[in-house]
Amino acid sequence: MAKLVLSSGGSVVQQCFVDRERLTIGRDTHNAIVIDDPAVSREHAAVVPVGNDHILEDLRSANGTFVNGSRVPRRILQHGDVIEFGAFHLRYLNPRTSSEIDLERTMLIEGLTARVSTARDALASATREIPVAAARPGRNNFPIGRVTILAGADAGCVVELDRVVATFGQPGIQVAVITRRPQGYFVTHVEGRRYPVVNGIALGRESHPLRDGDRIEVGDQTLELRVDAKGTDAR
Amino acid sequence: MALDLLETVGLSDVGNVRQYNEDTIAIDTGLGLMALADGMGGHRAGEVASRMAVDVLMQALRAQFPELRSAVRQHQPLLVVDRSINQANRAIYEAAQAQPGYYGMGTTLALTFFYDNGVVLGHIGDSRIYRLREGRLELLTRDDSLVRDQIELGLISATDASESHNRSLVTRALGITADASPHLRRDAALPGDVYLLCSDGLNDLVDDADIELMLDRLQANLPLAAQHLIQTAKDNGGYDNVSVILVKVLQPFPATVQHGWWRRVLAWLTRRSA
After folding, report:
1. In angstroms, rounded to a whole number, what is the distance separating the alpha carbons of residues A186 and A167?
2. pLDDT of amino acid B267
3. pLDDT at B72 over 70
4. Which site among B165, B231, B243 would you substitute to test the A interface, given the most A Cβ atoms closer than 10 Å to its Cβ?
5. Of A202, B57, B78, B127, which has the highest C-beta tally within 10 A?
6. Per-residue pLDDT tens digits for A165-179
7. A106, B146 contact by CB (below 8 A)
8. Which residue(s) pair with A208 in the sheet?
9. pLDDT confidence of A226, banded at 50, 70, 90?
10. What tens digit of pLDDT does each residue of B152-196 get?
11. Are A136 and B147 in contact (CB under 8 A)?
């Protein structure tokens, strides 16, 4: 179960479990967590449970609510977060929800607004959806590299390989893709009757790992790959 | 439908963390129907639910296909799909009630039914349908998920959603209630369109921008595009089962062509069993 631990000057003052109920934090004694400090408003912030989330909300306090040093109006609490209230620290502990844990097995719960959903269905037009950002994947380091086009179309250009794929060659004639993966760059044939040539040797259908200095021929282009030694692009 | 009108590929992977794959995918190119389901429920009941959803759906739609000919253009494909989905729902619901091991099992569903130069989009839960058209990716479905509700109620922003721990909590599914309310609509389907059906194991780990880039650059090789999507989800953690179905529209497909093809298939089947 999630816990909030209040401390001041290194000693723990209070511990409080976060359950299904909304709880408030402030100077007033009616709060679940009472902090007797002049910098704290009478009702300063609230922790609201929504599904698996505990959302910290600033209740328009005089001095604001700070999490891990930054002022926020609202935050989905993460295991280890520290909330500052004057001379006090409130630490949120919930090991179950470390961001590297896999997504919970899909479960069914009640929606927040069954009614709203129905009305939306009735509209049923091709409305543009607001994309929901993908979950932050765990620490992942990608290589840093680039390709210089030595010959063919766009000769002289340098293409940074900073996205998951980059394609080269001539669409409809011969195309190869260079894929950026944690373990390095790979080249794979995409289309065309002929396969890409790496350092003078033609490839087959399989992906081929690339190294710094490799030369790739695809379509009318000749490419030279450079990979930064020890460089990693943390996502 | 004739094979040169639509190109399709489907891939389903258990991922890096889970022991079992509870996603089910199926493609019937002849019929123009593709379906993807992400099951849930203890003790692998999720696998049962997702497989039932897809099997019953496919059977039901195949059985009703001939009646589409006589119908009012706009609405009939939607009704036929709705009926088929409800049949699948009823089957799962009854199995869940009847067997203790299956109690509470359910599944999401995403389906595309290509008919008469249009596509019926159906879904329930948080499995998605995207479309790439002229290089731009568009999400065609709205997740039945708690995260979606939170965003729409202003509780969190769309970018905050990546920090939410509610990512896999769905608010609607098949098999949970006696009657299902899938979201259904029909869109025009144009040559050049690429449709992507996927379970949340993909979009929870791969940004839309990366999905768009891979589909746009690799659409000339659909199997390679599908393989790249799955691989990227796994490289980014692979915390869940991940499944994709890709459909590329190659040429226009008016109803007359589809029905002509279907008549020929039925005739061939009847001769065989005679």
Report:
1. 12
2. 77
3. no
4. B165
5. B127
6. 999 999 999 999 999
7. no
8. A187
9. very high
10. 887 788 778 878 877 778 889 999 999 999 999 999 999 999 999
11. no
To the nearest whole number, what is the mean pLDDT of chain A? 84
Residue of A nearest to B126 (CA): A106
Instruction: Give contacts of A 54-73 with B, CB under 8 A.
Output: 55
Per-domain boundaries in chain B: 6-273
Exposed (0-12), middle (13-18) or buried (19+): which is A115, by Cβ within 10 Å? exposed
Question: Quick check: A124 pLDDT over 60?
Answer: no
Residues of chain A with Cβ-Cβ distance to B17 below 8 Å are 102
pTM of the model: 0.81
Report the relative pairing of strands A33-34 and A23-26 from DSSP bridges.
parallel
Quote the minimal CA–CA distance from B59 to chain A in Å: 26
Rg, Å, chain B Cα set: 18
Q: What is the 3-state secondary structure (H, E, C) of chain A?
A: CEEEEEEECCEEEEEEEECCCCEEEECCCCCCEECCCCCCCCCCEEEEEECCEEEEEECCCCCCCEECCEECCEEECCCCCEEEECCEEEEEECHHHCCCCCCCCCEECCCCCHHHHHHHHHHCCCCCCCCCCCCCCCCCEEEEEEEEEEECCCCCCEEECCCCEEEEEECCCEEEEEEEECCEEEEEEEEECCCCEECCEECCCCCEECCCCCEEEECCEEEEEEEEEEEEEEC
Q: Per CATH, is B6-273 categorized as 2.40.170.20?
A: no
Contacts of B73 (CB under 8 A, 6+ apart): B116
- pLDDT tens digit string along B239-252? 899 999 999 999 99
Smallest CA–CA separation between A13 and chain B, in Å? 29
Q: How far is CA A72 from CA A25, A30, A67, in A?
A: 15, 24, 7
Separation CA B51–CA B53 (nearest Å): 5
pLDDT score of A230: 58
